[in-house]
Amino acid sequence: MTAGLAGSTTPLADRFDLALVDLDGVAYRGHEPIDGAADGLTTARDRGMRLVFVTNNASREPESVADQLTELGIPTRPNEVMTAAQAAAQLLRTRLARGAKVLVVGGAGLVTAVQQAGFTVVDSADDEPEAVAQGFAPDLGWVQLAEAAYAVQRGAWHVASNLDLSLPTARGFAPGNGSLVGAVRAATGVVPDSAGKPTPTMYHMAVERAGAREALVIGDRLDTDLAGARSGGYLGLHVLTGVSSARDDVLAVPGERPHFIGADLRSLLVSHPEPAQAAEGWWSVRDAAARVTGGRLELGRAGDDLEDRLDLVRAACAAAWAFVDEGGVLDPGSVPELDVLGAGG
């Protein structure tokens, strides 16, 4: 699979039969809708694309997630939701026998997933659990983190639903599960195993469940969603409505690069031009162009509408990635913010 941007002459909703869609920062932000999410997903579904929502959030039940999506204009069934809690329970089954004691530190979604996998849920290190399953919950506190630390110190296997350091909310970015896992790791010195993205476990589970021909991963974070796409062998679409920015795309390491870039989920409904190498080191995407000279990114002129700004990002990625992949060292100070959404997008 190419390390660069891919192209699609047909809309992505027509090319892929399944979309693996992240939630926070993609379909919604906290409890608020994201512009274009409902329109993009419902229209894609009407055109034959199936949807599975794949989230690193392990605190909520699939039914709760499905209800929220439905309220936001994206009708969703619980079996169209795949959570990191389910992936964590699957990971536990690779080493633990049915009925084994597991200390669950997290929300109701993780408790349910661990129970449904056949394990006995306990809430104290004194119960001598064989594993600690840790996931995010907004009411998680010191008492629960301390119990996890005590159990891990006594030899329990530490499994994290995900290692996201931050969590997008309507008010900004809050500490994510990775930050809370870090407290247990700091207290014990033990590095946990993770079931969530960027590990592609959930993607593989979702594709197998759906029996898909070709799946597209959609996310807002390069270090989790798109890294998981790369490691799992899937093509990935980065939408610019969440954590990672267009500038992050240009500076992305090979294992975290997207294959497609879009402003929001309406990018499922359009084609995506592939960058082409032109004369004098320039890379072009329609009327936009970029190149790297002397280790510094140089941008050509582009129009002011949304697609023009996206094309400039694509050209910049192509130029920067080609330069780096050939052994060059790109000066990050030469890469501007490349604000796609701020100018009327």
From TrEMBL:
GO terms for molecular function: phosphatase activity. Pfam families: GNAT_like, Hydrolase_6, Hydrolase_like. GO terms for cellular component: cytoplasm. Residues 290-330 form the GCN5-related N-acetyltransferase-like domain. It comes from the Bacteria. NCBIfam families: HAD-SF-IIA. PANTHER family: 4-NITROPHENYLPHOSPHATASE-RELATED, D-GLYCEROL 3-PHOSPHATE PHOSPHATASE. This is Haloacid dehalogenase. It comes from Cellulomonas chitinilytica.
